[in-house]
Design a protein that fits this description.
The complex is a heterotrimer of chains A (282), B (320) and C (294). By secondary structure, chain A is of the alpha/beta class. Chain A is built from 10 helices and 10 strands. In chain A, the strands form 2 sheets. A 6-stranded mixed β-sheet of chain A has the order 6-7-8-3-9-10, with helices on both faces. The longest helix of chain A is centred in the last third of the chain and has 14 residues. Chain A is globular. The relative contact order of chain A is 0.19. Chain B folds into 2 domains: 48 residues; 263 residues, MetI-like (MetI-like fold, Orthogonal Bundle). In chain B, helix 3 packs across helix 13, helix 5 runs antiparallel to helix 7 and helix 10 runs antiparallel to helix 13. The radius of gyration of chain C is 26 Å and the shape is flat. The chains are: A alpha/beta (282), B mainly alpha (320), C mainly alpha (294). Chains in contact: A-B, A-C, B-C. At the B-C interface, helix 1, helix 2, helix 4, helix 5 and helix 6 of B face helix 2, helix 4, helix 5, helix 6 and helix 7 of C.
Chain lengths: 282, 320, 294
Amino acid sequence: MNETVTMPPMRPVDVAEREGPKAPVGETVFDIQGLTVRYGSNAAVKDVDVEIYKNLITAVIGPSGCGKSTFIRCLNRMNDTIPGFNLDGRLLYHGVDLYGDGVEPIEVRRRIGMVFQKPNPFPKTIYDNVAWAPRVLGMKKGLDERVERALTSAALWDDVKDRLKKSALSLSGGQQQRLCIARAIAIEPEVLLLDEPASALDPIATQKIEELMQQLKRDYTIVIVTHNMQQAARVADRTAFFSLQVEGSERFGVLVEYDDTEKLFTAPSDRRTEDYVTGRFG
Amino acid sequence: MSTVPAAEALRGTQRLRDWIGDRLLLVLTLLAALASIALMALIAWRVFRGASLSWSTFGLGFLTGTTWDTNAGVFGAGTLLYGTAVTSLMALVIAGPLAIAIALFLSELAPRWIREVIGPLVEMLAAVPSVVLGLWGILVLGPFAANHIEPWLNNWFGWIPLFSGDPSSSGVFVAGLILAIMVVPIVASICRELFLAVPSELEDGALALGATRWEMVRGIVLSSSKPGIAAALILGLGRALGEAIAVTQVIGSATAINVSLFAPGDTLASRIAAQFQGAVTKLQISSLFYLAAILLVIGLLTNLIAQLIVRRYEVQRAAG
Amino acid sequence: MATAEQALNLRGGGRSRRRRWANRLAEVVATLAALTAVAVLAIVVLSIAKRGLSEISWSFLTEPLPLFGQPGGGIAPLIVGSAILVAIATLIALPLGVLAALFLSEFASRRVAAPIQLVFDLMSGLPSVILGVFVFGLLVYGHTQSGIAGGFALSIVMLPLIARSTQETLRLVPDSQRDGALALGASRWRVVLGVVLPSALGGILTGTVLAIARAAGETAPLLFTTSIYLNSVQSDPRNALPNMPVQIFIWSESSDPEDHKRAWATALVLLAFVLLTSLLARAALHRSRRKLGQ
């Protein structure tokens, strides 16, 4: 009863079909040099060199376990919370080493926001979810306007404006994720890090998030981790491809290729990139 | 497709033995459960029955009467209710914040290896038998409090009626301290479980917004655990309310209400422990039963209230 | 949007510094709180050890109690008495508790289980002085004190503890084991006694040991049911049995420093027993929970 069926190789997504002019590369926001991350004695990523540019959407793609989340969590020092975390190399944010002496993680995180894979709204009202961080950080004036602005930018205001005092947990998954985006925007960051923001959402909610990202990139620099190649091809201006490298008993992630999205998908320079985007593995 | 050999082998005696065995097990376990319920009911009934003489003599006025005179045959729980309230409240005021801080230390702050050492140590505090703690209270803590703590309080805060009066090595103050030591591990271990149950994604979410660890704890962990903390405090209160032995050892036994914490006092439980064996008249014994009945009602109430809060809390958490 | 100047000031200004200070303060307070608890435990244990150790010797543990007012003697009757009382209590509470827990876990529906659970929760929150008063009224009033009455009172302390810990252990036995045995055609009672109970034995044992440690230290249930001072070792539970907690209580209230010394030594013996058994039981519980895959 088993016939072997040969599947044709996947067509690379036709990136040229994307609308809009190609975004030019502008100011450098992150300059990452030789980044190597270890947890205890295990390396997670080794020797990453990459520059992230302002007001662009940069996607980080690659197979599972190749250190994409680890990489992105370095950018806002969230890995500090993990015991055994160890970082080599330099991670410059507007020329300042994020891991240098005297740099306070809470200041870093105020400017570089993060949205997580699974929506994680606080068990508070919708209003308080957005207002909590500004209050804590001391932005007490004009709180109502700030909340409204953030929810509007996250394309959620119309949905919730009549029920701001309701629990955030009463929202749908997609709405909760947009609430998390609003929460991050409310404190006026410069950068938004999105760690697989739509992977827990249905296709319609995903589409809303992707449209939202296109609007947000006007005001914010966005780095998005995604395991969904098509999503990267749809939204990202530049794409970084990570892959797993095995050396003896060590397995760690490396940055294989980083380029303009269209080029990476249609004419990748590295064989490994080509294998991944054409679906031959991963 | 294939036959089920087990079904064929199930013959006469085997079937009967299984049927009997199943029924027997069900009956035995059911009886054990029913016996437990019956025991609880019996306890309540006999305590209330023992109090009936005193109840018919004094009625509800027993709760407010402050005389306890064995010779005159007049008994009242007023001073004891006061003493119970003051000692338990003092214990809660000291132990509550302390226990919450300890729970935060064990759940949020300490690295894993410290957690595994200090956690069990705090629980060991709960295992110390109350008579042993009371012995230590009489012979060590009492004198220490009388020589160092109470004079200092009297010096600085003597204008508050609570801290007026002469320092003494026995009394309400020492009893409150001993009760605080007993209450801390109970509240701490419940709160620790509560705090550990807060999902780490919520904590990450708060930290990613630039909050300090303390701001995250205050805004996310503590604020979402409020009902559970309340239940933990109530359970701790229940423990303090019911403690008889250690309290009677250090509290000095008094018959009048004194506003100073340093004066001797008495609680419902400690009065029972102190007088029950030597009780002579039927009325006295019945009055002691009456005290036990009050204690029973208070104990059941605190337990039920704590459970109610926990139940509402879990429903709230699930519904979102 | 952050300006370039803001981006460079990653050290934070005044407000940020105050927030970091508050954070540090909270850390210090929490650490101090934990250290206070440990310090209190250490002080209590060391006080008792310091004052009690000098009295303890082999003869102290094996000799009968001194005659009234006389120095010397030992606490053998107390140790034996406590052991018998706890044994009686365990004999009553263990089968009852395990059977009741089996009912709750294997047979009862949620609606039936709820009130029974409630009863056990209430029972475990009962002040133990009430248990003493209750058993006094039931078994002692009109008769005499006895070891059986004392043991029964202690069993009421142990019953809800054993029931609860047995229930938790039974809950950890995966349903797949029960289903597997049932699918093989085994009857209900065989599954429970042959599959479920054996897996749960370790947890039941440690729960019982913890309950024993608790009961061994209880004074109030014994105060009105078996509080007697007898010189020689008693072993007939139909009579009142001298025991450690009550005797410590009596000696602690005396004004004779000799009595205080004996109280410290007995307290040390009792404390050592309770703490050691509690620690061992908890360690075993930890390990068995981890083994059951939780």
